[in-house]
Fold this protein.
Amino acid sequence: MKMIQVHNLKKKFKDHYVVKGVTFDVEKGEIFGFLGKNGAGKTTTINMLTGITLPSGGSFVIGGKTNKEMNEIKKMIGVMPDAANYYYDLTALEHLTFFAKLKNVKLKKIDALTILDSVGLKGHEKKKVGSYSFGMKKKLGIAQAIIGTPSVVFLDEPTSGLDPESAAEIQQLIQQLASNDMTIFLTSHNLSEVEKICDTIAIMEDGVISKIGTMEQLRGMYKRAIQLLIKIKKEHNSIAHSLKCDVGDFISNVQTSGEYLCCDLLRESDIPKLIHYLSGRNIDIYEVRVEKATLEDIFFDRAADRHPSLIS
Amino acid sequence: MRAIIEKEFKSLFKSFKSIAVILFFLIVSFAASKFFSNNLELLQQNQGESVYASSIRALVMFFGFLFVLSLSHDVMNREVENQTIRFLVTKSSRNAIVIGKFLGIFLFWFVCVLSSFTVIALFAGQLFVFDFLKMICFLAYAIGVTMLLSLVVKKPSHTTFIGILLGIAIPVLGIWSIASKQFVLKIVKYVLPYYYIMKGSYYTFIPACFAALMLLIALAVFKRRDL
């Protein structure tokens, strides 16, 4: 079931289009990662989907409600906006109570404390938010987003600025929320985090989505999805030329560096074919290393830079 | 909307300026009432019992705009500048935010003026319902101006300055326009609430209609705003 459907969404500020028509779907219970450099348009997109900013064109549907029914959408979403401040004279508990009232959600004190506990704010619930650290404010941002167990949660850079331990806790919480059928839409600059927890990833560049899919699909789109490093005897280096001629259909590139053959493959299933080819020519293999393209490689499109020392 | 009304109302009571304004209202009401009850001959020379309410009436008409603007000039733009508005707008409708803020401020002034009129009523031994309604309609107008100002001018530092300026200029213009025969000031007379409050009768409620109109404009402005 599609929980979010976005069609040709655009945003213009003065004469400049920041979002130039994005189209994508998010399935129910999915963790959808939205990546992009600063200024790519991801926060503007999230702001349009949550009612903070008004679209200049296009449409979207969240939980069956169109963008014309924004007030209905607000009832089923939870939002952690980017860089928002809090009411510094209120405590975390007072914030949750106020936000719950705003959403017409009945929130008992015990439930509010459970939410704060789940984000690691136990023991800080009665402190004024003005005395909170940056990380604690981030955690409170997530806590207020999950009040009333919304169907869709939008998190704009939920772990930026958090220490590794807190970030891991938040990642775990996000996965737990998704396992309870909540749909999570998050933006992040942390590529390894997105790769680790997101089911679908969209990469935004200059106001458009340049790549979208699961991690496997993104690798499939990538010209160097798998890099195989094979240690052979140096005198067998000439095999690189034969490889290009004989099995060039599944090897996109072959290079040598010292005792290493460095082969770029498109699919994982091509690995045994390559090994079989080499052993069929009586070439002794001393070591095989499989390097899959990471999200970072795909994001920066820089497979060639992965092992510069190895490439001749 | 209830949550926003409640928060706005409570936050006004938390500030030192608001407490000072309430105390000022109460002290003036108490002092004036005591003065009139000790000088009953003044009541006979003037308009009778209504003189009791004259002090609070003068206070609201001369300083009402200044008080309301100085306390609430940043009611909307502060939330936008601090980006706390993002929490509100993702949880509640935009209309509910603007109306809630308006009603929160209105409730504060309602309580403030009601307390003053209660003090007066205790001394005079009677209720001044119509005088009370006049002041409430006048203050509703001032709150409408404040809401619009806070939405049109984006920086709270700017609304502080403009608020004080308007708080002084509006009463001067309002009272001057009633007596003036200049064309421009005649228009001003019909736009500001002073003429209607002075005229009394059903004219008293016209400023409240203006307040409703300003609220509608504020809703339209806020609905089109990127936050």
